[in-house]
Backbone:
């Protein structure tokens, strides 16, 4: 048994800071991807012809029905086998992004259905095309109404981004592991990493709350 | 696609899936017990108990499950806690999902109309009797769905224990890739088994929900 000494963490502050930076970068890019793909999937499931809608539904079902860890392995190690070689960072962003896109699509789909039919009728009667109605009238309202659950998906994404450390992306967990391999102090570094995640989480929550209030006011 | 390979490895994967089921079931029971305690603590009249419940839920929901497993399994020995991978996996997953389930339970209890509590108290029920005979029976129905969602998350999250070398489905898949170099087929089989298990949980939750729905 080895005592605890949190001061061993200090010399590695810059390593951990780099880890935080990459975690933020991953979360932001995968979050953006999950949001955009979420809207695309939702629209495809609702309005696309069956040949597109069914594969998309199957894809969503697969992303929601299997562990993210397995999906990352499949994207990173599996796609190479069929000639698609993406670097680890790309695989991490795509894996995280598509995984949460499926969850976002589920929410946005419900949001689109919940927009009053009068909105569509109104837009159509003043001469908007089908696509314009969707683009300028329905989707903005659907996204606004579903901001809170999409926000909690983003918080989940931030935490789940820790999993991409297994395919070798140098984010926060990976930085902690690097420091541990030199110091043999797993407890101190993992607790520090946990604390950093907690702080990132609080910051994201505060940001989301502000954003929600902003959306609320502009209504 | 090498279907004969998929066929060959299938029996080994089914065996590994049973380890995944075992670990999920044990973590589920542990998580439910912790969640009930945490929800009770969060709703209690004692300030220290409320603080402990709130802190537990906030810390375990606010940090990644992977890190929690690592702290327990790799960091534990520094504090004299030496756990086998399987035990660390069950305890880590249970502690993590317990925090989410505590919120599901609390949410259901809060969702029962206040008038129910007020009426029960007015006719002379004690706080405990009100909870036991009036609020809980109504809240139990409302818990089925959210706890079901938590259970599906737990089942998928159990893949994380492969990183602390518990030989379950995901770990087995990784091992077979080392010897076959056919990640697509191997992960495909594992994914199918996970989907089958998730489907089974969803079906059970649907049945329970229908069974206890108000006619």
Residues:
């Amino acid at each position: 048994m080895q005592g605890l000494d949190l001061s061993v963490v200090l010399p590695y502050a810059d390593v951990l800071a780099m880890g935080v930076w990459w975690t933020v970068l991953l979360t932001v890019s995968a979050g953006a991807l999950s949001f955009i793909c979420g809207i695309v999937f939702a629209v495809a499931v609702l309005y696309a012809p069956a040949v597109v809608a069914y594969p998309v539904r199957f894809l969503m079902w697969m992303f929601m029905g299997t562990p993210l860890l397995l999906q990352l392995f499949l994207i990173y190690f599996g796609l190479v086998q069929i000639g698609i070689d993406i670097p680890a960072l790309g695989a991490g962003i795509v894996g995280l992004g598509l995984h949460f896109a499926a969850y976002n699509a589920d929410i946005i789909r419900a949001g689109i259905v919940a927009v009053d039919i009068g909105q569509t009728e109104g837009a159509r009667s003043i001469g908007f095309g089908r696509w314009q109605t969707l683009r300028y009238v329905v989707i903005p309202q659907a996204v606004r109404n579903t901001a809170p659950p999409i926000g909690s998906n983003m918080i989940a994404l931030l935490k789940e981004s820790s999993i991409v450390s297994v395919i070798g992306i140098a984010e926060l967990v990976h930085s902690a592991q690097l420091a541990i391999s030199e110091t043999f102090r797993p407890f101190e570094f993992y607790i520090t990493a946990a604390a950093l995640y907690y702080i990132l989480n609080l910051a994201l929550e505060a940001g989301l709350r502000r954003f929600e209030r902003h959306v609320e006011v502009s209504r | 696609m090498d279907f004969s390979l998929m066929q060959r490895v299938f029996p080994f994967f089914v065996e590994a899936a049973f380890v995944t089921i075992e670990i999920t079931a044990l973590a589920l029971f542990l998580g439910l017990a912790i969640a009930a305690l945490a929800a009770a603590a969060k709703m209690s009249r004692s300030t220290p108990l409320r603080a402990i419940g709130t802190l537990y839920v906030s810390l375990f929901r606010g940090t990644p499950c992977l890190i929690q497993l690592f702290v327990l399994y790799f960091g534990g020995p520094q504090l004299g806690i030496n756990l086998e991978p399987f035990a660390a996996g069950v305890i880590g997953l249970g502690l993590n999902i317990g925090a989410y389930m505590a919120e599901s339970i609390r949410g259901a209890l809060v969702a029962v109309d206040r008038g129910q509590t007020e009426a029960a108290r007015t006719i002379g029920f004690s706080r405990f009797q009100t909870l036991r005979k009036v609020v809980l029976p109504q809240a139990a129905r409302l818990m089925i769905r959210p706890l079901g969602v938590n259970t599906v998350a737990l089942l998928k999250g159990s893949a994380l224990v492969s990183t602390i070398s518990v030989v379950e489905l995901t770990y087995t898949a990784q091992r077979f890739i080392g010897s076959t170099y056919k990640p697509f087929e191997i992960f495909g089989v594992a994914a199918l088994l996970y989907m089958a298990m998730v489907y089974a949980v969803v079906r059970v939750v649907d049945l329970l929900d229908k069974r206890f729905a108000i006619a």
Observations:
- The mean pLDDT of chain B is 92.
- Chain B has one domain: 3-211.
